[in-house]
Specification:
The structure holds two protein chains of two kinds. Chain A is an alpha/beta fold. Chain A contains 15 helices and eleven strands. Chain A has an eleven-stranded mixed sheet with strand order 1-3-2-4-6-5-10-11-9-7-8, with helices on both faces. In chain A, helix 4 links the parallel strand 2 and strand 3. In chain A, helix 2 runs antiparallel to helix 3, helix 9 packs across helix 11 and helix 9 packs across helix 12. By secondary structure, chain B is mainly α. Chain B has three helices and two strands. Chain B has a two-stranded antiparallel sheet. The chains are: A alpha/beta, B mainly alpha.
């Protein structure tokens, strides 16, 4: 077993038995990065010097008998999550030199458990995109086929986990940005319930949809990280004041009698046949181990993408107003204040970000607010109700995570609408604020990973983790590694 | 849609090329979004936030805030304890 392929649970075990030291593990990761990063381009910033120093300290702590959940475990963090003293760019020119003066709540919690930061991973600028091609610092590649996109916007995190450039990572998910890249890179990605993980220190894109979550090599690691990052935080007023169960303790429990909803709107004409058959085979496998599939309908599914792009772009246009060249970030010269604003934002933002700011500004402008933003908020209620109704009779819902496996780099960059439609299966979950996980469920004939999405009720991550784990234990998809 | 007006509201100086491209693309996206009008939402409440929490207050206690030097550390231009911006008044 190569050290860089270890999961958190296996690395933790090896460290606690004294078989591996944190320094050896960190060195193995940086050796792997040296070997493959040039091809993959998963990272915006590497924190090697600091990581090596911290690994030594963790080794000393362990010898002293100090016990921590992630002592010496090397993780990568998406570059829209603030890390004190470490450049956080959002893959944008406008934040190219931004060094956060504070730590996000999620990374503070990881730090308290002794994790080691390997680096900050690439994303579509400000998390706007589905392919990680919209980064100001270049596109990330899919480790299964480097002519293809890794998905996005957390493409750097998913790609780094899949290629062994870290043990696990954090991403953020506004419309599928954790689950879609996890599916396309053959790893596990979990979007928690809105409000269960603090967004303090996550650079805001669409505040009513954004949520941080883990991207990992298996389901157990997802539960381990979720245990650490979830829970109420007074620094985020949308953080829910509820107690956190031990997510790891539900793994391995029986799934007999669990009712799985199969929504007909997610198995549509023209979708990829291999994706469809892989997901249906996975449902059969779950049926073999005791689950009960039920046909259901989510009638407003077809309106989710339109609703999402109005709400997300509107919220983004408001959130991104803060980048004005005054308090932080890039500033362009201008003849007066207004001219400085206009030029700073013109030069600092990339094309997709400008397009969404324009769309959002229009949707919120006088005379159009009710027709667009107002209308979308009403339709959002209907999408949310679809799920509430279905969850009266089923425990979970299973769908494909994406309509196709990873597409080619450049294939959809000129057609924003086609790019938006690649998120068709993940977006509704954000609009409803419910949790969902994507896990590997097969490979295409071209050896590209296929992901299955398991959706649960509000604050019921336990059930989706339990089912995901039961499926994972009965297959070996998650053990396949790309040949790099 | 007057693209120049929207760009002004968004404080974005767009090139001719961007004006043309965004007009076409946003038009296209808006056409797609019009499908929302197929649904009657007359009696439907809007959802601005998925959780039922409203007006989250805390005790009004003074706690430590970000020190001035750290708040200014990322500023592109500053003087003493202030951010510096180009001239506003003629």
């Amino acid at each position: 077993m190569k050290l860089y392929n270890l999961t958190i649970s296996k690395a933790r075990e090896a460290i606690s038995k004294g078989e591996v030291s944190p320094s050896e593990l960190v060195n193995a990761i940086f050796k792997r990065i040296e070997d493959v990063e040039e091809k993959i381009k998963a990272y915006v910033t590497l924190t090697k010097v600091r990581a090596i120093e911290e690994a030594k300290q963790r080794g000393i702590d362990i010898k002293k008998g100090i016990k921590k959940e992630l002592a010496g475990i090397p993780l990568a963090i998406k570059d829209n999550i603030c890390t004190e003293g470490v450049r956080t760019t959002c893959s944008s020119r406008i934040l190219e030199n931004f060094i956060p003066p504070y730590e996000s709540t999620v990374t503070r919690r990881l730090k308290e458990e002794g994790y080691i930061l390997i680096g900050k991973t690439n994303l579509d600028e400000f998390a706007m995109g589905s392919s990680t091609e919209n980064s100001a610092f270049g596109a990330t590649k899919n480790p299964w086929d480097i002519s293809r996109i890794p998905g996005g916007s957390s493409g750097g995190s998913a790609s780094a986990v899949a290629s062994g450039e870290c043990i696990a990572a954090l991403g953020s998910d506004t419309g599928g940005s954790i689950r879609q890249p996890a599916a396309l890179c053959g790893v596990v990605g979990l979007k928690p319930t809105y409000g269960s993980v603090s967004r303090y220190g996550l650079v805001a894109f669409a505040s009513s949809l954004d949520q941080i979550g883990p991207i990992t090599k298996d389901v157990r690691d997802s539960a381990i990280l979720l245990n650490i990052i979830s829970g109420h935080d007074p620094l985020d007023s949308t953080s829910a004041p509820i107690s956190v169960p031990d997510f790891e303790s539900v793994l391995g429990k029986d799934i007999k009698g669990i009712k799985i909803g199969i929504p007909k709107e997610y198995f549509i004409e023209g979708m990829d046949k291999e994706v469809e058959s892989s997901v249906m085979n996975a449902v059969k496998r779950l049926e073999d181990i005791g689950a009960i599939p039920v046909n259901i309908t989510l009638p407003h599914t077809d309106y989710a993408v339109a609703t999402y792009y109005i709400l997300a772009s509107s919220e983004a246009s408001s959130n991104l107003a803060r980048y004005d060249g005054v308090k932080y970030g890039f500033r362009a010269e201008g003849k007066d204040l207004m001219d400085m604003y206009m030029k700073t934002r013109a030069k600092g933002f990339g094309t997709e970000v400008k397009r969404r700011i324009m769309l959002g500004t229009y949707a919120l402008s006088a005379g159009y607010y009710e027709a667009y933003y107002g209308k979308a908020q009403h339709v959002r209620t209907l999408i949310k109700r679809d799920f509430e109704k279905v969850f009266e009779t089923v425990d979970i819902i299973i769908t494909p995570t994406t309509p196709t496996p990873a597409f080619k780099i450049g294939e959809k960059v000129d057609d924003p609408l086609q790019m938006y439609l690649s998120d068709i299966f993940t977006i509704s979950v954000n609009l409803a604020g419910i949790p969902a996980i994507s896990i590997p469920c097969g490979f295409s004939s071209q050896n590209l990973p296929i992901g299955m999405q398991i959706i649960g009720r509000h604050f019921n991550e336990e059930t989706i983790l339990k089912v995901a784990y039961a499926y994972e234990q009965s297959t070996e998809w998650h053990l396949r590694k790309p040949d790099l | 849609m007057k693209i120049e007006h929207i760009a002004m509201l968004a404080r974005l100086e767009l090139t001719e090329e961007e004006n043309r491209l965004f007009s076409k693309q946003i038009d296209n996206i808006l056409k797609y979004i019009e499908k929302l009008n197929e649904i009657d939402t007359m009696d439907i409440e809007p959802t601005s936030h998925v959780l039922s929490m409203k007006n989250v207050f805390r005790e009004d206690n003074v706690v430590q805030s970000l020190p001035k030097d750290m708040a200014l550390q990322n500023a592109p231009d500053k003087t003493d304890n202030f951010y510096r911006v180009p001239k506003i008044i003629e």
